[in-house]
Design brief:
The structure holds two protein chains of two kinds. Chain A has helices at residues 2-14, 30-39, 46-60, 75-110, 115-129, 132-147, 162-188, 191-199, 203-220, 223-229, 235-240, 249-255, 259-287, 290-293. By secondary structure, chain A is an all-alpha fold. In chain A, helix 1 (2-14) crosses helix 3 (46-60), helix 7 crosses helix 9 and helix 10 (223-229) packs antiparallel against helix 13. Chain A is flat. Mean pLDDT of chain A is 75; it is low at 294-300. By secondary structure, chain B is an alpha/beta fold. In chain B, 28% of the residues lie in helices and 24% in strands. In chain B, a hairpin with a 2-residue loop joins strand 4 and strand 5. In chain B, helix 3 packs across helix 4 (138-151), helix 4 packs across helix 6 and helix 6 packs parallel to helix 7. Chain B is globular and about 70 Å long. Classes of the chains: A mainly alpha, B alpha/beta. The interface between A and B is medium-sized, with 26 and 34 residues.
């Protein structure tokens, strides 16, 4: 993680310095430019810059100040409230994705080849085949009139959260259902399921006591990453419902050449991915007793 | 192995399970396959019956019908299985099967490496089998589980109870699988190639264990196997299966020393122990018949160099050799020409009773 952050920081330093002049580089004189750079510590040798960056980050939690988007406001203060909004939506959506998606997957696997399975597969196919924009728009336009729900997000009205959350959940439900079904079907063909049936368990008991947990394990690994990434928000849903979330922030920062903001956000995302992966592996370890003892590549 | 016959005494007066003209079919990619072609058989209390035959002869399918564990694309087309006052072929719902499965008829599967749920402690897996059929408290169930573990020869049961399958060797896992099968002390224990996946030293131990459990609890055991060594070691009676039918059935001695069906001859002739040094081992030419098609006459006729004309036309009935020994071959018809069994089979007597067949 240290390495990734340092590399990101150094890469940012390679960018042309124009980004620090708020787009007015043509009109500024050389001395003014130099003063600004010096003030930001950008004329120091690279190792000193790196050292300062780490010192500030670790001791003061300081990621630098925004230059363009909101001048001189610390990046952390810009990101936090937006991340909070995104997280609120994301975590609810994720909970729905898991609850509905996994249940659907379980029922699809139990009734493999029957009506529920066909319907579920049709849903999964539809969601994956259609561009998200199409059904998001459809939901915003038709569902809002049909259910008399507000079309845009309004922080004061709880109902206005319903539609964006539905939008956010749909894709996840589809993929959760698809994977859960697949893993369950895989597990159901295993020998130990035959033994469990021979013990005298009903197929329902087998499905709930043996199959479900085993099928969930491969999914547990990706869970922490998805939880953490809810804070990054969804670009499309947030702009569609005008939610003040994280969705567009990175792109906005890049477009407007706010170097410190870009740096702060790339740092944030890399921290999230790495922590997510680590937690994912830990989650696997908790769920699967084999992993504590078996070395990588030796698992059965 | 000194003793071929085990000490326990099977009771041949009353069958506990009797199968009559059982026909099982499977639907495979739209085609119908007849896996069992009208099998009839009786199983007696306390005996061990070995069902032998090559792969695909229907041994496993046959035993799975006793527990209602046929795959979804298979069904019982005809016939009946009488057991404990029920006709098992009439069972449709899971609810009916639950009374039998695991409780009165239990099964030990072939591969212990994959037969246990890798994510549950073996204690839990055995206990589950017990609590499914007995309403008992947790402590009691655990006590019983520990007893079972000790019973199947797993030492240090208290510690082993909490371990996961990956912490067990293959032989130990098979013991756990046996403990699961024994959890409710079933009447009939079906062992589907119980030693195939194990190495030779462990095989003997597992067979010993099964024999000991049989004596202790008076079990009736069915061994499904293609290893004649195992058969000679444990079985009271042998049923030879070929292409979905029992072609010969008799006591261990009768089938080994006085086989009547040409397929049994061929099978025994291919025992490596009967080979002569320097000569190729005997092997049966050709392949088993296609079960998708209707089989006319004796199923083995196409591979039998000495087949009679009638073998290709009509299916032979069972001819009784002795009250315990019968075979489905026209050779036993009084009108049939005398065809002697292949000469190498005489050597099987040389291997002598109590001899070394495994």
């Amino acid at each position: 993680m240290f390495l990734v952050l340092s590399i990101v920081f150094m890469l940012m330093r390679l960018l042309p310095v124009e980004g620090y002049f708020e787009g007015r580089s043509d009109t500024m004189s050389e001395t003014v430019k130099n003063n600004i750079l010096k003030e930001l510590g950008l004329l120091d040798p690279w190792y000193k810059q790196l050292y300062n960056f780490w010192r500030k980050l670790l001791l003061e939690g300081d990621l630098g100040k925004s230059i363009v988007i909101r001048k001189n406001v610390p990046c952390v203060d810009i990101i936090l409230p937006k991340a909070k909004v995104s997280f609120q939506f994301g975590i609810i959506a994720l909970a729905i994705q898991l609850a509905v998606g996994l249940t659907l997957g379980v029922f699809m696997a139990r009734g493999k080849g029957k009506l529920i399975d066909t319907l579920g597969n049709a849903y999964v196919l539809l969601i994956n085949a259609l561009p998200a924009a199409v059904y998001f728009l459809a939901i915003q336009l038709y569902l809002s009139t049909a259910l008399k729900l507000p079309m845009l997000f309004d922080p004061l009205r709880a109902q206005s959260r319903i539609l964006p959350i539905i939008c956010l959940s749909l894709g996840g439900i589809a993929s959760n259902a698809m994977w859960m079904r697949r893993y369950m079907v895989d597990q159901m063909n295993m020998d130990y399921i035959r033994l469990a049936r021979a013990k005298g368990m009903t197929s329902r008991q087998v499905a709930f006591r043996h199959v479900m947990r085993n099928a969930f394990i491969p999914m547990a690994q990706s869970l922490p990453t998805s939880i953490l990434f809810t804070i990054s928000g969804s670009l499309y849903v947030e702009s569609l419902f005008s939610i003040p979330g994280m969705g567009g922030l990175l792109i906005q920062s890049i477009q407007r050449q706010d170097n410190t903001m870009v740096q702060a956000m790339v740092l944030l995302y890399s921290v999230i991915s790495i922590t997510g992966l680590l937690l994912g592996d830990l989650a696997m370890m908790v769920c699967d007793p084999r992993i504590k003892l078996v070395k990588k590549g030796e698992g059965r | 192995m000194e003793e071929i016959l085990t000490n326990h005494a099977p009771d041949y007066s009353k069958p506990i399970l009797s199968v009559d003209n059982l026909v099982v079919k499977f639907n495979l990619r739209g085609q119908v396959l007849t896996a069992l072609r009208g099998i009839s058989m009786e199983l007696y209390k306390g005996e061990s019956l070995a069902i032998v035959g090559e792969s695909g002869s229907g041994k496993s399918v046959f035993c799975k019908t006793f527990m209602g564990l046929l795959d979804n694309n298979g069904w019982i087309d005809d016939g009946s299985i009488q057991y404990g006052g029920y006709d098992l072929t009439s069972f449709k719902k899971e609810k009916e099967w639950i009374k039998i499965r695991g409780k009165r008829i239990a099964m030990v599967f072939q591969d212990p490496m994959t037969s246990l749920n890798p994510l549950k402690t073996i204690g839990k897996q055995i206990q589950e089998a017990f609590t499914l059929h007995n309403k008992v408290s947790k402590e009691e169930a655990k006590k019983r589980t520990l007893e079972l573990l000790t019973d199947v020869g797993i030492e240090d049961a208290e510690r082993r109870y909490k371990q996961y399958p990956h912490e067990f060797s293959g032989g130990m896992r098979q013991r756990v699988v046996i403990a699961i099968a024994m959890a409710c002390v079933p009447e009939i224990l079906i062992c589907d190639e119980p030693t195939t996946a194990l190495d030779v030293t462990i095989q003997a131990q597992i067979l010993e264990l099964l024999k000991r459990l049989q004596e202790k609890y008076g079990l009736t055991v069915i061994y499904i196997t293609h290893d004649l060594g195992v058969v000679a070691n444990v079985a009271d009676r042998i049923a030879v299966m070929y292409a979905g039918d029992i072609v010969e059935i008799g006591t261990c001695d009768e089938v080994f020393y006085d086989p009547k069906h040409p397929y049994t001859w061929a099978l025994l002739s291919s025992l490596p122990q009967l080979g002569v040094k320097g000569e190729d081992l005997y092997s049966i030419e050709g392949t088993p018949p296609n079960l998708f098609q209707h089989i006319k006459g004796d199923a083995f006729s196409a591979r039998n160099p000495q087949a009679l004309k009638v073998d290709f036309v009509a299916r032979p009935p069972y001819f009784e050799v002795t009250p315990t020994h019968k075979a489905r071959t026209w050779l036993l018809d009084p009108r049939a020409p005398k065809i002697a069994p292949p000469p190498q089979l005489k050597n099987i007597t040389k291997l002598s009773r109590g001899g070394d067949l495994d």
